[in-house]
């Protein structure tokens, strides 16, 4: 199994102009060869650093996407019952953000030994469609450069072909499209559920009036 820790670029924290090319080409190889990717958005990391400097909110908003699967890892003195109750509470409060067609999609583990210097810690990893925003940002930067063939000669001079760039872009677009479909399906289901609740409420009002 191949597991990667991949940091995606941001123009806010880098002056490397070809990063959109590099990121898109990297995604192509990750799709083809990696089994699991831990993705870090450098722009979100940059904004989180500003949050510690009294910025009111981070840029990463869990409400912008839907959870396919998630894993919570706890370390420290904590009962398994308390851990399970906390995870059930999280899922119940945020049920609209979890896809319904994947049952038991949140796993949790507990280690009695806390990290050095801490009494307790937890790590939450999610497979979420919110990654679509980052892919869209990189894709827009890629397209803007590729249309002008800006800096493309650096790659073709090393033996690469333009078709490799097009194939890599298409791979990223496929990932984007899949996340978009999941979001749309979840939005339709949520709207249908809210409409059903509204109709039931109206019927209750009518019956009381009679």
UniProtKB/TrEMBL annotation:
InterPro entries: Tubulin (IPR000217), Tubulin/FtsZ_2-layer-sand-dom (IPR018316), Tubulin_FtsZ_GTPase (IPR003008). Pfam families: Tubulin (PF00091), Tubulin_C (PF03953). One of its GO terms (biological process) is microtubule-based process. One of its GO terms (molecular function) is GTP binding. One of its GO terms (cellular component) is microtubule. The keyword GTP-binding applies. Residues 11-140 form the Tubulin/FtsZ 2-layer sandwich domain. Belongs to the tubulin family. This is Tubulin/FtsZ 2-layer sandwich domain-containing protein. It comes from Populus tomentosa.
């Amino acid at each position: 199994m191949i597991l990667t820790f991949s940091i995606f670029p941001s123009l806010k924290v880098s002056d490397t102009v070809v990063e959109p090319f590099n990121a898109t080409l990297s995604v192509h190889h990750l799709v083809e060869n990696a089994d699991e990717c831990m993705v870090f958005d450098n722009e979100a990391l940059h904004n989180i650093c500003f949050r510690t400097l009294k910025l009111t909110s981070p840029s990463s908003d869990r409400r912008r996407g839907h959870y396919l699967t998630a894993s919570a890892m706890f370390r420290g003195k904590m009962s398994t019952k308390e851990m399970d109750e906390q995870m059930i509470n999280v899922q119940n409060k945020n049920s609209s953000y979890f896809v319904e067609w994947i049952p038991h999609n949140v796993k949790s583990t507990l280690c009695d030994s806390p990290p050095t210097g801490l009494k307790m810690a937890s790590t939450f990893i999610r497979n979420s469609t919110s990654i679509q925003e980052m892919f869209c940002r990189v894709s827009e930067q890629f397209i803007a450069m590729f249309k002008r063939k800006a800096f493309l000669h650096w790659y073709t001079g090393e033996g690469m072909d333009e078709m490799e760039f097009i194939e890599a872009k298409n791979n990223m677009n496929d990932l984007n499209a899949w996340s978009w479909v999941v979001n749309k399906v979840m939005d339709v289901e949520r709207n249908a559920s809210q409409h059903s609740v509204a109709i039931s409420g109206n019927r209750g009002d009518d019956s009381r009036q009679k």
